[in-house]
Amino acid sequence: MADTEVMRLAEMPLHDPFVVVDGGTRTYHLYTSNDPSVSGVEGVGTMVYRSRDLRDWTRPTVVFLAAEQREPWAADGGWAPEVHEWGGRYYLFTTLHDESKPLPAPQPGRWGTPFRLPNHRRGTVTAVSDSPLGPFTLVDASRPTPPEHLMTLDGTLYVDPSGQPWMVYAHEWLQTVDGTMEAIRLAPDLTRTVGEPVFLFKGSDASWLGEQIPAGTPHQLPPYVTDGPQLHRTPDGALLMLWSTYEKNRAGEDGTLSGGYVQTYAVSNSGELQGPWEQRRPLVRDDSGHGMLFRTFEGELMMILHRPFENARGKLYEMQLHGDELRVLRQRTDLDGGG
After folding, report:
1. Where in the chain are the domains?
2. Each residue of 142-161: b (16+ CB within 10 Å) or e?
3. pLDDT, one tens digit for every residue, the chain (339 residues)
């Protein structure tokens, strides 16, 4: 890396962080939505910070811009970018939206909602490059990867034991009220989908969500948010899914519920993507979430997430797997600056 300016996580704006560990160059690539205040480049897209040691990072490089794509299906957002190496190339998944193009919405009164929820085009698109540093070009600018009539976000790549690639994504609570996790098969070159979406679980399956709601609260109802899926195979063959939601823990005078963003996970002990999925206790609260797991060059299992939700910074945690149980050992404040 020729860049000389050093940045630290505590001063690096980032949301929905995703780390790629490049063994060839012994470099960590940290992808997030483009922020012109640090990249120096205007526009919706993706930027990447790089580091050798998870402590000192380069100023970010922009690797994808929606405005540079030819007639993109949507050009706002740029949320939750991920990069995956596949077949000798690099594939970027990122979520775009277009608020001027409405989608079907739940009827007023369904699930206790007294109003029609706003729905518009939102979905994860796929772009490809020969380098993790881009530039990335959309494989199909005319549509998102999941079905375009669905309001979806945060698509991630999962490859099952047979070698079949899938996109796992969150189906927005704005369209479903009780948000879901779903998956759809991808073609071998990741450029198109195959078949219909498969339901995995719904947000309300996490029974702990309402534990802190005061007794007698009148509106113990959805919405239930599903965000940020990421899959991880344990040595025992179980399949873990990190995901995030909002914990409902306070009731206002009008009966509405509020709560902080949390990092949680679910387990498929069958090892199958279709589950059944068992919801586990949250890993990190304190307005934290959208995390992912990776291994360092030294073999340590780490989780990175963002906190707080607004003006977010990256936080690093040393993790441990005990069978199918994922545990936080400690926050690496020596690397992320604490907080």
Report:
1. 6-336
2. ebbbbebebbbbbbbbbebe
3. 555 689 999 999 999 999 999 999 999 999 999 999 999 999 999 999 999 999 999 999 999 999 999 999 999 999 999 999 999 999 999 999 999 998 876 555 444 554 456 789 999 999 999 999 999 999 999 999 999 999 999 999 999 999 999 999 999 988 888 899 999 999 999 989 999 999 999 999 998 887 665 555 544 455 789 999 999 999 999 999 999 999 876 544 444 555 689 999 999 999 999 999 999 999 999 999 999 999 999 999 999 999 998 899 999 999 999 999 999 999 999 999 998
Domain 6-336 = CATH 3.90.1560.10: no
Q: Which tokens hold the place of 284?
A: 């990190």
Polymer length of the chain = 339
- CA-based Rg of the chain, rounded to a whole angstrom? 19
